[in-house]
């Protein structure tokens, strides 16, 4: 009986898809069991401490002895640092059901390096929401993502951020201040031009979209608009899948001024009349500059009905300690 080649290839694809799905589920199941096991180990350690044999001090001999004995009996994975983080895992998530099935122990190991319970809550939820790899998680934590978003909110907003992650519900939720573009590898003192900044962003588009946040879909660069016989060019054009609108991004090497705001207002009016289709919400404009004059911005944006958002960008990682001080002041007020 002759085998029909097209049906045979279909059989191979079906089996391959099943195997791939099964292996992925097996890996996920192993990760879930591992995290739950480490959580339980952390619980045992805390309960042992609370029964009076040891107190919760990192300098205690408990962890050194425990590490040595567990390694001898069960092999690798029980270094002192690992055991401390297992303990912290339990203390940070005392209800095991709050642990995410999407995150591996490697994710939690990084998340638990955060300095506060607010940060731990935010990064665990945000990592789950956006399916970050461990590498991307590290990058977002180094860039102080939590502090940069939190500083744009009030005290209640910060607490909500920690519990639910960064949920985009309004245009203002797109802002971080500043946006951090250290992945462009442009030296801080280098006198670059705006077109060079744009070129570097295009070359690192995936990372730039990750920095912008969830929901951005890239449409094009130097998008041409023709008005009254004149041509205007927008640096970067996106569509936001959650807010269902165009997002126009203009890049400025120096300080954002009133002319930039007026120009963006022009672009937004064009998009409302010429580009938006049924079902689209009103477009949003984001102007990214190295500096912004807050007083000038306040007067220039007053009475503008279009949504024009302004933010700084920087080419280096922010000073986390300084941001944390600002955030502490915000929460305490």
Structural notes for this entry:
With 333 residues, the chain is of the alpha/beta class. It has 2 domains: 5-162, no CATH class; 179-317, Trna Endonuclease, Chain: A, domain 1, CATH 3.40.1350. The protein has helices at 5-50, 61-74, 80-92, 105-111, 117-130, 134-142, 145-150, 155-164, 194-203, 205-212, 258-275, 294-301, 320-332, and strands at residues 179-180, 216-227, 230-240, 245-256, 284-292, 307-314. Strands 1-6-5-4-3-2 form a 6-stranded mixed β-sheet, sandwiched between helices. The longest helix is centred in the N-terminal third of the chain and has 46 residues, at 5-50.
Would you kindly provide a brief summary of this structure?
The chain is an alpha/beta fold and 333 residues long. The protein contains 13 helices and 6 strands. The protein is globular and about 80 Å long.
Task: Summarize this structure as a short list of keywords or feature phrases.
13 helices; single chain; Trna Endonuclease, Chain: A, domain 1; alpha/beta; 333 residues
């Amino acid at each position: 009986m002759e085998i029909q080649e097209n049906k045979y290839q279909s059989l191979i694809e079906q089996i391959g898809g099943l195997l791939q799905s099964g292996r992925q589920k097996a890996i996920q199941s192993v990760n879930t069991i591992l995290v739950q096991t480490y959580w339980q180990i952390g619980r045992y350690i805390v309960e042992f401490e609370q029964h009076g044999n040891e107190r919760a001090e990192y300098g205690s001999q408990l962890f050194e002895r425990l590490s040595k004995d567990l390694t001898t009996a069960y092999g690798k994975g029980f270094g002192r640092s690992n055991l401390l983080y297992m303990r912290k895992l339990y203390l940070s998530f005392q209800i095991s059901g709050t642990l995410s099935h999407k995150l591996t122990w490697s994710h939690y190991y990084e998340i638990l390096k955060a300095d506060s319970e607010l940060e731990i809550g935010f990064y665990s939820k945000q990592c789950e929401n956006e399916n970050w790899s461990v590498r991307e998680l590290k990058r977002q934590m180094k860039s102080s993502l939590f502090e940069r978003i939190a500083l744009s909110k009030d005290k209640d907003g910060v607490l909500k951020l920690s519990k639910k992650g960064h949920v985009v519900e309004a245009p203002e939720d797109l802002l971080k201040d500043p946006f951090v573009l250290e992945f462009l590898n442009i030296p801080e003192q280098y006198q670059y031009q705006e077109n060079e900044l744009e070129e570097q962003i295009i070359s690192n588009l995936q990372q730039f979209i990750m920095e912008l946040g969830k929901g951005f879909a890239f449409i094009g660069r130097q998008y041409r608009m023709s008005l009254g016989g004149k041509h205007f060019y927008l640096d970067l054009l996106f569509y936001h899948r959650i807010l269902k609108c165009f997002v126009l991004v203009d890049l400025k090497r120096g300080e954002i001024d009133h002319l930039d705001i007026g120009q963006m207002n022009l672009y937004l009016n064009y998009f409302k009349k010429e580009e938006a289709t049924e079902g689209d919400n009103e477009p949003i404009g984001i102007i990214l500059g190295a500096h912004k004059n807050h007083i000038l911005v306040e007067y220039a944006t007053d009475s503008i009905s279009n949504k024009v958002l302004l933010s700084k960008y920087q080419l280096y990682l922010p000073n986390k300690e300084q941001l944390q001080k600002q955030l502490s002041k915000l929460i305490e007020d």
